[in-house]
Design goal:
Shape: globular
CATH topology: TIM Barrel
CATH class: Alpha Beta
Radius of gyration: 18 Å
Structural class: alpha/beta
Number of helices: 11
Strand content: 15-25%
Order of helices and strands: EHEHEHEHEHEHHEEHHEHEH
Number of domains: 1
CATH architecture: Alpha-Beta Barrel
């Protein structure tokens, strides 16, 4: 089973202005022992398919897919989403990747109003999802899935259920984001398993989460406080997650992600290597 990682584990959330160059990221994700990577923010890794193919091959890496963040709460942004996907999808196809993930942009929502959409806003979101799926799957032959994410319009189980009812999109289920609001990712995976196409593995620090649940810490501040902790250290039973995936015959991508706390004592490379060592140790 191929376990991949992603540029966000190195704090790379935008195409430019990052502390790590794309060459350094590829060097380090390979050095950590991973054989697969996500594309990261579109434009961070080279858009030239020949160059990217050579750089990946030189490090024995496979491009497994991409996660694209879009402001789904902006109902007028549908044409921009489709234009970006028309540019992004061919690069994935050229590199042999089979998956594309979309997710809502949390920075759009004011603090304290995360994920608040009225009926018109929700209708706009679901229409964009349908249009994106028709394009990505119908024209490019890729599998499209949607990533529920804290601080967005699709983060709690009721919202995820509604998205699944009102569209045909499948999920990229993120264990950390699902557990953030004290939801049980394992139980939810069992409930909706046929609609899960892609997995992100994260874990949650229970003590930091409790501060959020009690209103002591904001969602935004919880990241710096280390709410998304290394895989061995959190409340999510990652070994049980992997066991369920094996038992159900899951064949989609599995991507380890690691948000780095503000006072982290380990580098992204060290964290990535530790997470992979844990995954290898619990392999079912």
């Amino acid at each position: 089973m191929l376990i991949a990682n992603a540029p966000c584990s190195w704090g790379i959330n935008y195409p430019t202005g990052n502390r790590h160059s794309w060459q350094n990221y590829l060097d380090e994700v390979a050095a950590a022992g991973y054989r697969g990577t996500e594309l990261g923010p579109f434009g961070f890794l080279p858009k030239d398919p020949a160059l990217l193919r050579d750089e990946l091959a030189r490090r024995d890496l496979t491009l497994i897919g991409a996660t694209h963040v879009h402001t789904f709460a902006d109902t007028a942004s549908g044409p921009l989403l489709l234009a970006t996907l028309r540019e992004l999808a061919p690069l994935l196809v050229a590199l042999g990747a089979q998956h594309l993930v979309i997710m809502d942009e949390s920075n759009w929502y004011p603090e304290g109003q995360e994920g608040v959409l009225d009926q018109a806003g929700w209708a706009g979101l679901t229409q964009m999802v349908r249009d994106a799926q028709a394009l990505v799957e119908g024209e490019f032959g890729l599998k499209l899935s949607f990533h529920p994410h804290i601080g967005t319009a699709v983060e709690r189980e009721g919202q995820i259920d509604r998205l699944l009812r009102e569209t045909e999109i499948d999920l990229c289920l993120d264990t950390g984001h699902h557990a953030f609001w004290d939801q049980d990712p394992l139980a939810y995976m069992a409930k909706v398993f046929p609609r899960i196409a892609y997995m992100h593995l994260k874990n949650v620090d229970g003590a930091v989460r409790q501060r959020v649940l009690e209103g002591e810490l904001s969602v935004a501040a919880s990241y710096g406080a280390g709410v998304m902790c290394p895989l061995p250290d959190g409340v999510v039973d990652i070994q049980a997650v992997m066991r369920l995936l094996k038992e159900r015959g899951f064949v989609g991508p599995i991507v380890v992600e690691q948000d780095v706390a503000a006072d982290a004592s380990e580098t992204p490379l060290q964290l990535a290597a530790r997470n992979l060592a844990y995954m290898n140790a619990i392999a079912p």
